[in-house]
Specification:
By secondary structure, this protein is α/β, with parallel strands linked by helices. The chain has 2 domains: 276 residues, 3-Layer(aba) Sandwich (Carbamate kinase), CATH 3.40.1160; 93 residues, PUA domain (Archaeosine Trna-guanine Transglycosylase, Chain: A, domain 4), CATH 2.30.130.10. The chain contains 15 helices and 15 strands. An 8-stranded mixed β-sheet has the order 5-6-4-1-7-9-10-8, with helices on both faces. It has a 5-stranded mixed β-sheet with strand order 12-11-13-14-15, sandwiched between helices. It is globular and about 70 Å long. The C terminus is likely disordered. The structure holds glutamic acid. The site of glutamic acid (GLU) has 15 residues, from helix 4 and strand 6.
């Protein structure tokens, strides 16, 4: 494929997740004033896409920004409960504004509020998938946000960039468009008063150079800086979807991205993980870790094998059957994660033993594998899976 053909790839996407950042819907410089025009622009472009027989799911931030405004605050809430309160107030206006703007184009919208802890349960994940699929079949535009009311700091996605990547997996989208108020990923972090550095045009692999360029930036009303956008692009890539990060203040930007114009930064899709494995790697959080020896690392990484009790040297954390758990090497690096067939208590007792002794030691057997290969996903290449709190030796 030529460079031009690669750049035009988004043109072929049928199902598109469009993530709208708070920075686009409100004006930080103007005390968080809501930019109602932006809603109209989004609705117009999405309606054009729907008319061209493409399916669109919106993931929209802006509840906290809108709620703060309604409550007459000049800040987005100082504490988590204040932010949650602002989100609860603002979500109404957010969806209502979209509803009115989409109605002008004869389209209905639906409000879908998701939480990470809900989606960690496979059954609920599948339920959310069915609902979203049905909405799309009905020609309705789903508008997704995190359910901030119940999502406390430890359990939340926290930023809609990561949420939007999970939505890519939920609906099997082939393109993620992250619409923000920056033009794309700059080759180095832009500095105030200096000319803007050049953008990355196409990113094939999110490695150290790209991560460095993303630096760290948090905005007043939105949560995500470039770092969370990279996380989202990486997760979407492993789902077989490419991602474009672009500036929503530019005219017709969503339409232009979907038409394959070379705007913003395009992150290419990589190898596609099966949806269930993607869920395991990017939506669930691990409940503990199993330290494994070098032989087990080789069996998992090089030979595509399951994890047997013999290779386990230590158990960290407490977890039950079916919970997601990290497999970490002796140096603390996460090599894989998977759903365990035994509880942490049981694994403590069978760690290091040959498989045939499971039955005698425990008095029962759930099978010879502590994590079956079908329930396991490798964390490499590179740092593809999110970092794991149990995975360090410290
Ligand atoms: N859920 C938050 C809101 O609607 C936004 C989180 C984010 O900006 O990523 O305000």
């Amino acid at each position: 494929m030529t460079k031009r053909e690669i750049r035009q790839a988004p043109r072929a996407a049928r199902r598109i997740v469009v993530k709208i950042g708070s920075g686009l819907l409100s004006d930080a410089e103007d005390g968080g004033k809501i930019r109602t025009r932006a809603f109209g622009e989004i609705a117009r472009q999405v309606a054009q896409l729907v008319a061209a027989r493409r399916e669109v799911v919106l993931v929209s931030s802006g509840a906290i920004a809108m709620g703060s405004r309604t409550l007459g605050w000049s800040h987005p809430g100082r504490s988590i409960p204040e932010k949650q309160a602002a989100a609860a107030v603002g979500q109404i206006g957010l969806v209502e504004t979209y509803r009115k703007r989409f109605a002008r184009h004869g389209l209905e919208v639906a409000q879908v509020l998701l939480t990470r802890s809900g989606l960690e349960q496979r059954e609920r994940f599948l339920n959310a998938r069915h609902t979203l699929q049905t909405l799309l079949e009905l020609g309705v535009v789903p508008i997704v946000n995190e359910n901030d009311t119940v999502a406390t700091e430890e359990i939340r996605f926290g930023d809609n960039d990561n949420l939007s990547a999970t939505v890519v997996n939920l609906v099997g989208a082939d393109l993620l468009v992250i619409v923000s108020d920056v033009d794309g990923l700059y080759r180095e972090p832009p500095r105030d008063g200096q000319p803007k550095p050049p953008l990355f045009d196409v990113v094939e692999h999110i490695g150290a150079e790209v991560e460095r360029a993303a630096g760290g930036s948090e905005r007043a009303f939105g949560r995500g800086g470039m770092v969370t956008k990279l996380e989202a692009a990486r997760a979407a890539a492993r789902c077989g979807a490419s991602t474009v990060v672009c500036n929503g203040r530019r005219r017709d930007i969503i339409w232009r991205v979907a038409a394959g114009e070379p705007v913003g930064t395009l992150f290419l899709a990589t190898d596609r993980l099966a949806s269930r494995k993607h869920w395991l790697a990017f939506t669930t959080r691990t409940r503990g870790a199993l330290e494994v020896d070098d032989g087990a690392v080789r069996a998992l990484v090089e030979q595509g094998k399951s994890l047997l009790p013999a290779g386990i040297t230590a158990v960290r954390g407490r977890f039950g059957i079916g919970d997601p758990v990290a497999c970490v090497a002796a140096d603390g690096a996460e090599v894989a994660r998977g759903l365990v067939a035994y509880s942490s208590d049981a694994i403590e007792r069978i760690a290091g033993l040959p498989t045939r002794r499971i039955g005698t030691v425990l008095g029962y057997s759930n099978g010879g594998e502590v994590i079956h290969r079908d329930d396991l996903v490798l964390s490499s290449p590179s740092a593809d899976a999110p970092r794991d709190p149990h995975a360090s030796n410290a």
